[in-house]
Amino acid sequence: MTSPSQEFRLEPATFADLKGWKDDDPSSLFRAMKDCRTHIRNVKPYRTGMAGLTADDLLMLLDAAEENEPQDAAEARAFFEAQCQPFFIRRGDGGNGFVTAFFEPEIEVSATPDETYRYPFYRRPDDLIDLDDSNRPADLDPSYMFGRLSEGVISAYPDRGEIGRGYLEGKDLEIAWAKSKVDVFFVHVQGAARLRYPDGKLGRITYAAKAGHPFSAVGRLLIDRGLLDRATISMQTIRDWLYAHPDQVDAVLAHNRSYIFFREADVSDPALGPIAAAKVPLVAGRSLAVDRLIHTFGFPFFIRSESLKHLDEGKPFARLMLALDTGSAIVGPARGDIFTGSGYGAGELAGTVRNDADFYILIPKAAARRFG
């Protein structure tokens, strides 16, 4: 069952319809495409979304990319023009596409707790299980992909508020401790972080699972209460408000019942982004989080936003990207989250992205015949 905002159709287009395509340089996507190919062939195929595109459809493109290493932007564009057919994603409700952005924060942490470092990042608990239609309790919404197994009974897992009140204490699940629960919350929103230890050691955590509850934006809550202005809201203004109102932090953060669990990940090459839901490293400025229920990981999307200009030195955003991640807040066929990179500067870029955008998906020509 789909909501009106999830209904859509794919309308055939040409590369000439992709405004800004001729100025784009998609050559940095080829390494990620090869990583996707390795994952599909050696680990497992990506799950097919409601759009009906399969990992086998994608392999037509990935196999061709394996044999081609573009020397410049023109060759990279020519490759996609030869291999793919663009389709405009038309929302069924007539609404515009929409993009936000995310990044990999760098957080000061300690391997042990003390009076300064008090707020943990948790590993996945043993009593958290994956849910599907075969084991999901009837009283849990189909959106719940995780639940709690206790004494043979499956139920909803404790939410952010319950975990914040100590549900996981004493279970030896802590990876590291941060100084601020606000910092921890925003790492949950981003889904990954670099961890800077007092001795200078650099670690990384990335998404492992979640408690299963739906994402609820605390920014929207603050707008609805008249505490922040819709016209100027950003990650930075939300963070500033939380720091300025420490007595209200727990209640506001608990509004977002979704809770993220992490795993430790490799950071031997700081140039590579975190490994996200598609199980390959993210590429700064070229990786897109999409609705996993609709879209299949690994497919190229061309995103055009006239109003999003600060990512490209005042020019409208127009880039080919790969769908390599997902997120609880990324819902709908023309909804995307742009990965801007790692560290403070990437966070400053990401925090103010809230823009209408056109979404085109590039489908390998053999598969494109099924869509008109």
Q: Can you tell me about this structure?
A:
This protein is an alpha+beta fold and about 375 residues long. It folds into two domains: about 10-100 and about 270-370, Barwin-like endoglucanases, CATH 2.40.40; about 105-265, Ribosomal Protein L25, Chain P (Beta Barrel). It is built from ten helices and 17 strands. The chain has helices spanning about 30-40, 55-65, 75-85, 160-165, 180-190, 220-225, 235-245, 250-255, 345-350, 365-370; strands at about 10, 85-90, 95-105, 105-110, 120, 130, 145-150, 155, 175-180, 190-195, 200-210, 260-265, 285-290, 300-305, 315-325, 335-340, 355-365. The strands form three sheets. It has a six-stranded mixed beta barrel, surrounded by four helices. A six-stranded mixed β-sheet has the order 5-9-4-10-11-12. The chain starts with 7 loop residues before the first strand and ends with a helix. The mean pLDDT is about 95.
